[in-house]
Amino acid sequence: MIYQSDSLTVTRLEGDIAELNFDLNGESVNKFNQATVNDLTAALDALETESGIKGLLVTSGKGVFIVGADITEFTELFKSTADEIKPVFVPNNTNLNRIGKLPYPSAVAINGYAMGGGLEACLACDFRVMSTAAKVGLPETKLGIIPGWGGTVRLPRLIGVDEAVMWMATGAEKRADEALKAGAVDAIAEPDQLRAVTLATLQQAVDGKLEYSERRARKHGPLPLNDTEAMMSFFTIRSMVAQQAGKNFPAPLKVVDVIEKARSMSLEEALQVEADGFAEVATTPVAQALVGIFLNDQFLSKKAKGWEKKADKAIERAAVLGAGIMGGGIAYQSALRGTPIKMKDINQDGLDLGLNEANKLLSKRVSRGRMTPQKMGEVLNSIDPTLDYNGFEDVDIVVEAVVENPKVKHAVLAETEKQIDKDAVLASNTSTISITYLAEALERPENFCGMHFFNPVHAMPLVEVIRGEKTSDTAVARTVAYANKMGKKAVVVRDCPGFLVNRVLFPYFAGFTGLVKDGADFQQLDKVMERWGWPMGPAYLSDVIGIDTGVHCVEVMADGFPDRMTPQYKTATDIMFENDRLGQKNGKGFYEYVTDKRGKPKKVVSEETYALLEPHVEARKDFDKDEIVPRMMLPMAIELARCLEEGIVETPAEADLALLYGVGFPPFRGGVFRWMDTVGMAYIVEQSEKYAYLGKAYEVTERMREMLSNSETYY
Predict the structure, then answer these.
(1) Catalytic residue among 220, 410, 452, 552
(2) Which of 246, 454, 565, 710 is the most exposed place for a label (fewest CB within 10 A)?
(3) pLDDT for 334-384, tens place per residue?
(4) How crowded is the C-beta side of 177, counted as CA atoms within 13 Å?
(5) Which domains does the chain have, with CATH numbers?
(6) Residues 106-141, buried b or exposed e (16+ Cβ, 10 A)?
(7) Cross-strand partners of 603
(8) Is 552 among the residues known to form the active site?
(9) 3-state secondary structure (DSSP) of residue 426
(10) Integer Cα distance of 511 and 687 in angstroms
(11) What is the reported pTM?
């Protein structure tokens, strides 16, 4: 043994080969935390004093290579200044440079995942052999930062500027065949042959049959581009990255800037440029927001796995009541992820619609090469359409997804309960109706909960699992376990009108209709909020959700929270509804919809909308975005704070992710609570007082005032 620590070992193998093996004690994966960086420094010290070594084999003792840096160590770091951040990355850059300058060749066996700093460590080695089951990538831009351990320097010198920028700007994971084709790895091998192939590659280099000095020179020198080639290449790729990333995500463009600035430099000089670029983006609110989302997501996954461990029984067979688009989407997602499902409807047309939805989604996967036709057939065969309850006695969970009508749901739920095992879970995919109220129709309310999917089911990650007054922990645990198995992000919330997402979304819509009443152009409101970061503005979003659905939700909210959610005027949404403008579902709402060449609805402006609104709104006038944004966002933010204070949702992290995954809240803002922390509670209270005349929805809670007094934040 040449060196041993809690994170890695260096062992002398037969043939004077040294093996550097990463194996972080107490963790399921390897990561570059501060301890690992320090241990690597000590390991290299030991290696350099060991005589007779002819080659270095780099391996992992885990099922993955290295997943990257320890992001949990970043949160405090990013609160520092740029000058304080830059030195933090020096030790591991020195480590990787030392590996690249060893007086003998090195080869790395890449298994599982080598992401971020993990791939950067691989790039420092002379030869890279990758398992066919592995994936590699530099996903730092997804966190609002850029690679900090030489990724912007070594990768473009290995695979070319254009390809390297695309890897980094998108943060995409790359399969072994893709990495080999690009030139990022030198060979691929089946998992059980990975070590042997890597050792054989290294031995060839040791024996002089594979040359490695030129490889090193390429990574240490300037990019092979003259001034004209560089100008054309960087102009083109900068335009492409700017268009794809948008103005709210600075990291992808910073990758381009760093590579261009360092193109004629040596490795050491280029690493300094990379460090400057990293520090610059790391201190932005965007980086703090995106890193926050990453950590929140890990927290949510841990909570979901905790619930799953409490589940006393696995969900092996499921059923959905009500086919159509929603039922078909639920059936598709369940079957795709390996849980056979019965899909029941009261008529064949409904079943046909549900099956067509599943078939359409599966066919799209096949056409994109993500599924074989044989696998598609297997998934479709695991969806069992039925007009009766035959076989329901064997299912573990039933998701009711019939029309959003309390009386209908009461009847269907009561009938279904009689057809299923006494131990089975019954869940409702209601978007607004109280779970406690629906449970009144049941003999076993402890086995009943809400399981609210968002439309379209296959695309929206969120599932709200709603606990009614009598819902048991067992029912919640099994339902969360089922959501996990379906590949969804489950947030457990308490029962209340609208639950969490709809309860806070409709005050946002109230801000919108209030502005329209006061003379704002709905198109301007859409543009301002889209520029602020929402994927679609409030008028467009209303059309997509469905105007009739919106009207129904407002009625539910008004009943539940009459002091702040009862409209005091005829809203723009009411006017659309009264004139049978229901949104995309019937081709006309705030906008009108025509089918484009790809068969998708395209919105066009309708003068009829303005004519219908005119008698009920003030004369049209322009509003500044500094008024539009707080009037739209304050009611949502304050209502979300109420939900947290009332225990509807347990943590700011879960609340922020629910809006991110459920309605597309701008990720670069990190979530509503993260946004409030960023702008400051003083701003929130000041704007609340400014717009107090608009009603109680704009009135901050006493707890929020306490937070201001005590200089507290949500994170």
Answers:
(1) 452
(2) 710
(3) 999 999 999 999 999 999 999 999 999 999 999 999 999 999 999 999 999
(4) 0
(5) 3-283 (3.90.226.10), 314-495 (3.40.50.720), 502-709 (1.10.1040.50)
(6) bbbbbbbbbbbbbbbbbbbbbbbbbbeebbbbbbbb
(7) 593
(8) no
(9) strand
(10) 13
(11) 0.92
